[in-house]
C-alpha cells in the first residue's frame, strides 16, 4: 500500500534440491556439525468451516478440530517474501550476517538426502547459471494481467465460474494463469487458448521461453562451493541482517528465521518466518509514520493486523503469504522500531476489525483527496458495505447528497476546495501533474505491450477523456483515442496505463504548444493511492483533535467492530465455497 511514511520518504515515487556440490577442485560432502538446530514449527495449510463458510488459516500445526482456537492464531508465524525473484538477474547477491556475538546456522539437504548444517558468521549468496543438459520449454497460459491483486482475484473467480481452473501469480504484475497442473502440456494450453480466442477473449496469451540455463543460489564454505535451491537460515538471537551489496551501510534486520525457496518464475524468494506481532513492529511505523499521534498509530496497528490475517492467500502459488512492499504492506524488519508504535501494537495485541463477524478488507491509503472511495470505484467484485464514500472532514465542507461528484462541474469545483478537510496541508492533498504527449504514448505502449493488446503498435494518442465518474468523484472509465482506434481504461487500470496521476481522483486539461499543436495533458486532482478506507494523513488530524483509535476506525469503516481474534471470526470467504459448490 502507498503509505504516508512511504510517500514522505519517496516523494514522487510512483522490483529440485540439486544434490551435487562442486568443490573448488573436488567434490566432497559437508562435514557434520555438532550444532542442533532449534525445533522448527512447520506451517501447513488448514481448511476449516465456520457457519458453513470455508475460510483459510495457515497456522503453526495441523488442528484436528473443526475450529481454530483464538490462542493458536493470535501470534501465528507469518511467511513474508522479503526478497522476491532473487536470481532473475545473473548478478543478484544476498549477504546475510549474524548480529555481533551471534552465529548463523544454514541447513540444507546433503548429497545423500540427509539434512546438513553449517555454522557461519556471514553467508554470501550469489547466483550461478547452471547449463541444462538440453533446452527446456517454460510456458504458461496467461488469461489476464492486472495492476492489483483485488482485480486479479475477481477475474480468477470469473474464470473458475466458466469451469477453467486457474491460479494467481505475480511475476512482476498480477496475472491469472490457467492452472499449470491441469493444463500441463503445450497441446492442452493451445487448445484452451484457441477456444478462448474463438469466443472473443482478447486478454489471454501464451508466455513462452526456451530456457538453456537454470539459476541457482550458491555460496562458499571452508573452501568449497555449494549450490542448493532450498536453504533454511536462523540465528541464536533470532535476528539476521540482510543486504544486497557488500558495502550496504543500512542492512535490514529481520526477526525470526529465513529461508530460500524456488518460486513459480524460475527464480527464488527469501522468506522471513516471523510471528505476527513482531512483524507489525516492522510495518506500523513505516506505514503511518514514526511521529504520528498515538491514536492514529493504534488505528494503524489494528488495521495492519486485520489486513495481514485476511490476505494470507496472496502468494499461495509461491508458497508464502505476503510481500514486504506496497503491493501488500511496507515491512522493513526490526532494525528501526519506535516506542510509540511498539506501545500501540502491545496495547491492541490480538485486536482486529470486523464486519458481521468477518475480518474486513482493511484497505487504507496515504491521502484520499477529501473523500474516500468505495471499493467498487477502484476494483471489481462484491461490494464492501463498510468501504463507502466518506467525506474526509469533521465539518460541512460539501453536501454529497445534493452535489454528486459524478457531475463534472461539481467535481472540478470540489477540487478547488483546500480548506476544512482532515488532509489539509499535505503535499499530495491537491496536485497538478504534467504529462507530455511523448510520455503518455510511451506509458500506454508499455501497458498495452505487457498485455499483448492488439493496438500495442499504435503511433500516437489523439485524445483522452474521462467518460464515467463515480458519485465519489473517482474516474471509473477513461477513453483513449489513438490512430488505431479507441481503448477503454477502467478503474485502477487507469493508473497502470498512465504514470502521471497520483490517484484516479482527477480531471484533464489538454495542453497546446505555441503553434497550437497538441502537446499532452495536465492531470489535476487530489490524493495519493487508491483512496479506499482509512486515510493515513486524515487519521493524523483526527488523532490531534482528540479522537480515539476506535472512533477513527468507525469514521473510515462505518458499521465495523473491533474484536479480539476468536474462533467465531471468519477470516476470509471464498466466493465459490457455497453450500452447493463448496
From TrEMBL:
Pfam families: SpoIID. Residues 266-355 form the Sporulation stage II protein D amidase enhancer LytB N-terminal domain. PANTHER family: AMIDASE ENHANCER (PTHR30032:SF4), N-ACETYLMURAMOYL-L-ALANINE AMIDASE-RELATED (PTHR30032). This is SpoIID/LytB domain-containing protein. It comes from Laspinema palackyanum D2a. The lineage of its organism: Bacteria, Bacillati, Cyanobacteriota, Cyanophyceae, Oscillatoriophycideae.
Amino acid at each position: 500500500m502507498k503509505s504516508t511514511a512511504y510517500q514522505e520518504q519517496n516523494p514522487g515515487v510512483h522490483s529440485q534440491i540439486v544434490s551435487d556440490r562442486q568443490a573448488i577442485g573436488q567434490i566432497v560432502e559437508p562435514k557434520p556439525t555438532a550444532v542442533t538446530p532449534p525445533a522448527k514449527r512447520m506451517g501447513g495449510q488448514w481448511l476449516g468451516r465456520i457457519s458453513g463458510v470455508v475460510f483459510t488459516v495457515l497456522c503453526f500445526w495441523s488442528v484436528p478440530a473443526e475450529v481454530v482456537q483464538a490462542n493458536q492464531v493470535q501470534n501465528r508465524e507469518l511467511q513474508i517474501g522479503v526478497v522476491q525473484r532473487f536470481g532473475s538477474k545473473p548478478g543478484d547477491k544476498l549477504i546475510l550476517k549474524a548480529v555481533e556475538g551471534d552465529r548463523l546456522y544454514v541447513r540444507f539437504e546433503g548429497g545423500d538426502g540427509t539434512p546438513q548444517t553449517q555454522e557461519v558468521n556471514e553467508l554470501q549468496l550469489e547466483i550461478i547459471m547452471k547449463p541444462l543438459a538440453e533446452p527446456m520449454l517454460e510456458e504458461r497460459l496467461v488469461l489476464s494481467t492486472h495492476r492489483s491483486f483485488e482485480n486479479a482475484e475477481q477475474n480468477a473467480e470469473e474464470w473458475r465460474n466458466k469451469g477453467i481452473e486457474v491460479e494467481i501469480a505475480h511475476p512482476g504484475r498480477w496475472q491469472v494463469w490457467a492452472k499449470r497442473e491441469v493444463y500441463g502440456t503445450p497441446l492442452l494450453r493451445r487448445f484452451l487458448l484457441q477456444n478462448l480466442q474463438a469466443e472473443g477473449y482478447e486478454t489471454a496469451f501464451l508466455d513462452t521461453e526456451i530456457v538453456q540455463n537454470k539459476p541457482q543460489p550458491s555460496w562458499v564454505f571452508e573452501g568449497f562451493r555449494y549450490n542448493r535451491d532450498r536453504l533454511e537460515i536462523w540465528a541464536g538471537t533470532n535476528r539476521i541482517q540482510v543486504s544486497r551489496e557488500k558495502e550496504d551501510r543500512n542492512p535490514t534486520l529481520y526477526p525470526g528465521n529465513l529461508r530460500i525457496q524456488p518460486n513459480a518464475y524460475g527464480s527464488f524468494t527469501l522468506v522471513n518466518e516471523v510471528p505476527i506481532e513482531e512483524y507489525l513492529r516492522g510495518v506500523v511505523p513505516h506505514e503511518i509514520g514514526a511521529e504520528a499521534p498515538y491514536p492514529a498509530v493504534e488505528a494503524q496497528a489494528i488495521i495492519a493486523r486485520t489486513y495481514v490475517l485476511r490476505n494470507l492467500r496472496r502468494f499461495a502459488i509461491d508458497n508464502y503469504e505476503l510481500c514486504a512492499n506496497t503491493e501488500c504492506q511496507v515491512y522493513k524488519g526490526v532494525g528501526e522500531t519506535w516506542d510509540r508504535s511498539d506501545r500501540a501494537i502491545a496495547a491492541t495485541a490480538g485486536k482486529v476489525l470486523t464486519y458481521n463477524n468477518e475480518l474486513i478488507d482493511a484497505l487504507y491509503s496515504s491521502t484520499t483527496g477529501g473523500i474516500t472511495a468505495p471499493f467498487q470505484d477502484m476494483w471489481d467484485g462484491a461490494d464492501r458495505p463498510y468501504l463507502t464514500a466518506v467525506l474526509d472532514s469533521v465539518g460541512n465542507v460539501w453536501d454529497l447528497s445534493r452535489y454528486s461528484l459524478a457531475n463534472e462541474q461539481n467535481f472540478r469545483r470540489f477540487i478547488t476546495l483546500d480548506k476544512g478537510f482532515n488532509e489539509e496541508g499535505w503535499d499530495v492533498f491537491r496536485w497538478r501533474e504534467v504529462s507530455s504527449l511523448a510520455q503518455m504514448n510511451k506509458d500506454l505502449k508499455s501497458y498495452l505491450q505487457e498485455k499483448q493488446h492488439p493496438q500495442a503498435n499504435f503511433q500516437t494518442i489523439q485524445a483522452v477523456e474521462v467518460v464515467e465518474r463515480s458519485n465519489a468523484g473517482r474516474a471509473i472509465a477513461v477513453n483513449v483515442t489513438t490512430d488505431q482506434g479507441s481503448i477503454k481504461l477502467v478503474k485502477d487500470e487507469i493508473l497502470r496505463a498512465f504514470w502521471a496521476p497520483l490517484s484516479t481522483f482527477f480531471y484533464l486539461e489538454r495542453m497546446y504548444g505555441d503553434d497550437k499543436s497538441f502537446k499532452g495533458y495536465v492531470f489535476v486532482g487530489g490524493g495519493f493511492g487508491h483512496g479506499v478506507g482509512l486515510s493515513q494523513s486524515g487519521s493524523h488530524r483526527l488523532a490531534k483533535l482528540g479522537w480515539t483509535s476506535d472512533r477513527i476506525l468507525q469514521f473510515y469503516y462505518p458499521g465495523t467492530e473491533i474484536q479480539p481474534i476468536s474462533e467465531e471470526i471468519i477470516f476470509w470467504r471464498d466466493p465459490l465455497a457455497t453450500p452447493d459448490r463448496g
